[in-house]
Specification:
Blueprint lengths: L10 H10 L3 E4 L7 H12 L8 E4 L1 E3 L2 E2 L12 H6 L2 H17 L4 E2 L24 H17 L3 E7 L15 E2 L3 H6 L3 H8 L4 E4 L3 E2 L12 H11 L5 E3 L6 H4 L4 H11 L11 H16 L5 H18 L11 H7 L3 H11 L3
Parallel strand pairs: 1-2, 2-5, 5-6, 6-8, 7-9, 8-10
Antiparallel strand pairs: 3-4
């Protein structure tokens, strides 16, 4: 799943899609100019799939992590939902969020954050987390997942197995988590178990070093964490997405080609490359091809990955069939409407 620059589809991205096919694309603020432009861009991107439309993904959490800004509804951070403590409000928020995403043809939201915010000094999670209490994160995270997915938007719980008690930012360095497995099961893993029980479409891994589970590799590249814990012990059957492999927590230790292979080898189904350099992305894709050709990655494993993709797509594809860019009048009437603004205002009381 690739990122790119600009408000139109770059020719280099079209070339990659033709040569390799793509699982999906991720939109950032750099790709957003106006609602009409985003709708047209999504329409172009949907044509890149050879058999089915690629995933069109975005980080639309609320607060400081939101790629779609005004005239889209600007949602307060998710911590306000935990403080409000009303699951009904949480579901109304998620329903409104899903409505705006679906209108734009977006099929996957990298939300909700399921990290338990137990470290007040955490520089990257903070008010992105719903709460510092695992049961509250689980309850409201589940409500967001169920509501998004009932509306046809695939959800993604992140960042497994937990980024809430770290003191550094994985965008810049590799954070350390030193809790024993018993503590992880009692706190960090609680919201993820609830998400799996709710049928969450995807879970994103964290670039954190969890020493009690694997003292050599970050979670995103660790088979003990991705396959043994998430896939086997927790019985997660959806898509496992690596966090962006261009973040320095991973990129300082290995090349993009190496990390892409390691992520799939660990058990990830989606390799997320959020940068905009299509030549580096092509090198990572070629690295994956070589890994299959050399049998480092088995055809059986790749077939299982593709099977999970097909299975998850089949759940959400019907919601996107027949989608066309809405008219400017429809967009302007629906985005940031009075109902959505009222929900956002109610959340802001708890900021």
């Amino acid at each position: 799943m690739l990122g790119f620059s600009g408000v139109d589809v770059p020719p280099e991205l079209r070339s990659l899609a033709r040569e390799f096919d793509l699982g999906g694309v991720i939109l950032f603020g750099r790709n957003v100019q106006a609602p009409e432009q985003v709708a047209d861009l999504v329409h172009q991107l949907r044509q890149l799939g050879s058999e089915q439309p690629p995933w069109i993904a975005v980080d639309q959490e609320g607060g400081r992590v939101a790629r779609l800004r005004r005239p889209f509804t600007e949602w307060p951070p998710m911590a306000t939902l935990g403080r409000r403590g009303d699951v009904g409000v949480t579901r109304r928020f998620a329903r409104a969020l899903a409505g705006e995403l679906q209108l734009m043809g977006i099929s996957l939201d990298f939300a909700p954050v399921l990290d338990v915010h137990t470290n007040p000094a955490n520089p990257v999670i903070g008010d992105r987390a719903i709460s510092e209490k695992a049961d509250i994160v689980a309850e409201h995270g589940r409500a967001i997942i169920e509501t998004l997915q009932q509306a046809g938007i695939a959800a993604c719980g992140k960042h497994f197995p937990g980024h809430g008690d770290t003191s550094t930012d994985s965008h810049h360095t590799l954070p350390l988590v030193e809790h024993p497995l018993e503590r992880l099961r009692a706190v960090e893993l609680v919201p993820f178990r609830a998400a799996i029980d709710a049928g969450v479409a995807s879970i994103m891994t964290a670039h954190v070093l969890v020493t009690s589970l694997d003292d050599a590799r970050p979670a995103s590249l660790s088979r003990r964490i991705v396959h043994d814990l998430l896939r086997e012990e927790l019985k997660f059957e959806g898509l496992i997405v690596s966090d962006d492999l261009e973040m320095r927590a991973v990129a300082d230790a290995c090349t993009l080609e190496q990390s892409a292979v390691l992520a799939i080898e660990a058990g990830c189904d989606v390799v997320l490359l959020c940068g905009a350099d299509q030549s580096r992305q092509a090198a990572a894709l070629e690295g994956l091809v070589r890994a299959v050709e050399s049998e480092r990655l088995s055809c059986k494993q790749i077939d299982e990955v593709l099977m999970r993709h097909r299975r998850v797509r089949e759940r959400f594809l019907p919601a996107t069939i027949g989608w066309r860019p809405p008219s400017p009048a429809v967009l302007r009437a629906a985005l940031g409407n009075e109902e959505h603004q009222a929900i956002a205002e109610e959340m802001r009381h708890y900021a």
